[in-house]
Amino acid sequence: ITLQNNLLSIVSSSRCHHFRKDADKLEKVQRRATKLIKGVENMTYKEKLGLFNPKNSSFEVYCDMESMGGGWTVLQMRQDGSINFNRTWNDYKKGFGNLSREFWLGNDKIHLLTKSKDMQLRIELEDFNGIREYAKYEQFYVANEYLKYRLSVSGYSGTAGDALHFSKHYNHDQKFFTTPDKDNDKYLSGNCGAYYSSGWWFDKCLSANLNGKYYHQKYKGVRNGIFWGTWHDVSNGLPDGYRQAFKQVKMMIRPNGFVP
């Protein structure tokens, strides 16, 4: 169990969205965690580790219990550049990073979590000027490895703009997952994953890439950083020729029709 800003506790629950409906279980977990962590007081369930139990397997997930009523299972988080996202197909398949800091949950796990095809996606972004925006999609599904983790996403609303459906040539919906060592994108002259140093659902190549390199400030050169092409009209770069950098990014899902 790890502490960072908020208490993280391991909870035996099939989904993050079950937490609020199971107060007795939460209270038991709090008592257990208090015994495990000496000196911890004023416990909170703003953010916790849950345990997802699909058939014949189980894995920990990170739960956001506060944003827009809570119940979110976090798929990806960026906040300090501590984890390298320039990874192989197998790394993105299995997942990597630290659930309490920066991570990619793993494409196999994301498929299991979304295979009901009734999940909504929320993306939260913050730049280094403290500006925060979000993009919400009413439908989000990732296929299995045989189908190359093809992305299905639709039903946008929010303030960050719909960068996943930017234009005819830059549309990430229905695209296969690509990594630097496995080229499944639509770009005929090369591998978008290798060029932009990450795994993502590239088209030819991108109008969004939340797995790009973490820059601690605006930068110049190849747009290989975290990118959201509709962010305050920065798709062509900032006026001074620099690229936009993001301080924090979070991708998370919960069922449609969720009631806090």
Please describe what this structure looks like.
It comes from Chelonoidis abingdonii (Abingdon island giant tortoise). One of its GO terms (cellular component) is extracellular space. Residues 16-257 form the Fibrinogen C-terminal domain. Pfam families: Fibrinogen_C (PF00147). This protein has 260 residues and is α+β, with helices and mostly antiparallel strands. It has one domain: Gamma Fibrinogen, Chain A, domain 1 (Alpha-Beta Complex). Helices cover 12% and strands 28% of the residues. The chain contains four helices and 14 strands. The protein has helices at 23-36, 89-94, 107-114, 192-195, and strands at 3-4, 6-7, 10-12, 47-52, 59-64, 72-78, 96-97, 103-104, 119-127, 132-142, 151-158, 208-209, 227-228, 246-255. Strands 3, 4, 5, 6, 7, 8, 9, 10, 11 and 14 form a ten-stranded mixed β-sheet that branches. Strands 1-2 form a two-stranded antiparallel sheet. A two-stranded antiparallel sheet has the order 12-13. The radius of gyration is 18 Å and the shape is globular.
